[in-house]
Design a protein that fits this description.
Helix content: 25-40%
Strand order of the largest sheet: 8-7-6-9-10-11-12
Number of strands: 12
Strand content: 15-25%
Largest sheet: 7 strands, parallel
Structural class: alpha/beta
């Protein structure tokens, strides 16, 4: 691999997660770093860009794009290949934060924290019904997708005593997961699970992976948790299931349209927890991205393959 990276642009789109100045400071001793307006018409004279979004201008003048997220469904793979632009992502850095967020969701439902917060906003003293709260130990959790995000969830769910099963494209066993099902057995995997957690990338095969049939296969008291991508869930079907009382609730960090429109009925359900696509947020996010970028700069100098190369 022959490439020289002497300058990197940090797209201001990363400000949705951390100040771009923080990343510039974390990389400044390794390479020249500048900050550009999101969607700048030209990236000259930069050799690479670190970004949260994609713009066509990236195809001209840069050799390498690094996404601060793990998901890369917004990037046009074929066009990048045609222009010889390398794409890497930040897979591997989100597992701990997303795993803690997911168990936070589970605890919110089990210990009835969500209705308690809502009662507090109304200054109401409203203890839960005597048999409404429960503990997580021995509840079954199905994690759909056992990559970096899924493994982070497995570790923390297992530590809380949940019985963990999973769905994995290869169907290969994984430590901490009692049974690993292939995608064709999705309905079997989710049928008896109190919690169904989605942690898959968005590809053609996972778009609306959870729709009417899958929701019907779940327990009536099941909690659906989505920290993957919004379109992995058929949102209209989810609303229908919630309205019909066919689902116990949902914790949703991602949506088919973001920000979630004000008129969405998902805002109104008592048993739905909405968070604004922030499950992976942590004060160390920029440091974790900087570490990945530094690793790849070192690999470029050594003539080695990129870490987390997608294209």
């Amino acid at each position: 691999m022959s490439m020289e990276i002497s300058s990197i642009a940090v797209d201001e789109s990363v400000s949705a997660v951390f100040p771009p100045e923080e990343l510039r400071g974390a990389l400044g001793d390794a390479v020249d770093v500048g900050i550009i307006d999101a969607g700048a018409d030209s990236l000259e004279p930069y050799d690479a860009v670190v970004t949260m979004v994609y713009h066509d201008s990236y195809l001209e003048g840069v050799n390498w794009i690094h996404s601060i997220q793990a998901g890369v469904d917004r990037f046009p793979f074929d066009e990048l290949r045609e222009h010889g632009v390398i794409l890497t992502n930040s897979s591997g850095i989100h597992g701990p934060a997303v795993g803690e967020t997911v168990v936070g969701y589970m605890l919110s439902f089990a210990r009835r924290l969500l209705p308690a917060v809502k009662s507090q906003t109304q200054r109401e003293w409203s203890p839960p019904v005597w048999d409404d709260a429960y503990t997580l130990a021995d509840e079954r959790c199905c994690i759909v997708g056992l990559g970096t995000l899924g493994r982070g969830i497995v570790e923390r769910a297992s530590a809380l005593g949940l019985d963990v099963v999973g769905v994995r494209r290869t169907g290969e066993p994984l430590d901490g997961v009692q049974t690993v099902y292939p995608p064709d057995d999705l309905h079997t995997a989710i049928r008896d699970s109190k919690f169904v957690v989605l942690a898959v990338p968005l590809v053609d095969e996972t778009r609306h992976l959870i729709s009417t049939e899958e929701l019907a296969a779940m327990r009536d008291d099941a909690i659906l948790i989505n920290v993957a991508r919004g379109p992995v869930v058929d949102q209209e079907a989810l609303v229908d299931a919630l309205e019909a009382g066919e689902l116990g609730g949902a914790a949703l960090d991602v949506f088919e349209a973001e920000p979630l429109p004000e008129e969405s009925p998902l805002w109104e359900f008592e048993e739905v927890l909405v968070t604004p696509h922030c499950a992976g947020f942590t004060k160390d996010y920029y440091r974790n991205v900087a570490e990945l970028v530094r690793k790849n700069l070192a690999r470029i100098d050594a003539g080695e393959e990129f870490v987390n190369r997608i294209v």
